[in-house]
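Input chain follows. Return structure tokens only.
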Amino acid sequence: MVSSDIFRSVIGRFASGVTIITARDDAGVDHGMTATAFCSVSLVPPLILVCVDHTATMHRVLDRATHFAANFLASEQEELSRRFGSGEPQRGGIAEEIRFDGVGYARAASGAALLNDALAHVECRVYARHPAGDHTIVVGEVEIATAHDARPLIYYRGGYTQLER
């Protein structure tokens, strides 16, 4: 069995885009989290997946939500990625109720937040949930997708980088 330290080191060499997953809870409170464990699954139907740690507040939200959005971050949005990836409030992270303070966004038809200036947005209906170790794989069926011209924010070996022109 590969140790978690070696696994993290090896997987860190896989460059990935950065997304912020957003959804509203039953009380109408916005929630969001930074995720790099995100990918497309299928073209027909159009499916994506995101992996969510069982201890994340967002896990509890997505366990009950019918819809969510994925915001693909542009290179200028590193600060947003850090803000939404800061961890749980009890571990020194930003409290959910203030995480969206001062952040510009529009409302998706489902109610999820679509962050301003993102590279792209996908609005999804929850299609399936699958337990996988200490995470849950949440599969979303894309109902609406929009793209904008910008360079992507990329995560590689534990840090942020950008594509060179």
